[in-house]
Amino acid sequence: MPISNVAAMRADDLKQLYAVYGDFYQLDLGEKQLSCRVVLELVAHERVPLLANRLAEQQPDLLVVMMNPGSSKPIDDTYRPRVVGLEGAGARPERVLTRPDNTQYQVMRVMAAQGWGHARVFNLSDLREPKSLLWRQQVEQLADVPGGERHSLFCAARREERERLMGERGKIPVLVGWGRDAGMRFLAEQCLSVLSGWLLLGVATDAEGIFYAHPSPMLQQAKERWLAEILMCLQ
What we know:
The chain has about 240 residues and is of the alpha/beta class.
């Protein structure tokens, strides 16, 4: 599909092609709970299994890593995610229908251009906080909590869970686009260490290759430029 056609695809067009499922949980820290999401599945309607939880068993065509889940939430406002401690973020995964956002639509455009039916989205941090300042504060607070590093799927302690979700190294490409916030440098470096040996797709924004442009910048022209650069990498 030509880039111009893909870039012109609207949200309603993309929702006709793909469904969105997320795996949410509440991280119990005793005095408070933090909203989190482990993974997001962007999947063609015809590839959704009868039992949505079985999406976890399917190999996607693309892996994606971004900064954090932001304001992502289930479509069903009455849904209550499981509550887990720091040791159990990956226990009893669930896949529930989730509201897509502009960033996910950009990933869908890449999928549509390539004829892909399934992308699995991770984040540098599971913490589901749309305000960047508050998100950074949460990350900093967890740094002082024993086991607090587990908010990131890319920490050493969650290796088994991560490998189960990602599959065999190098089998499929990984789209990276976590932005350029210097406050997440450690998380970005941790993730890149894990991704060594994988085929990375992204628009680097620094000479070191630590930070990669977010898929959905504010300006429409910038969105289209990002999309064109990613699709060029895939030619």
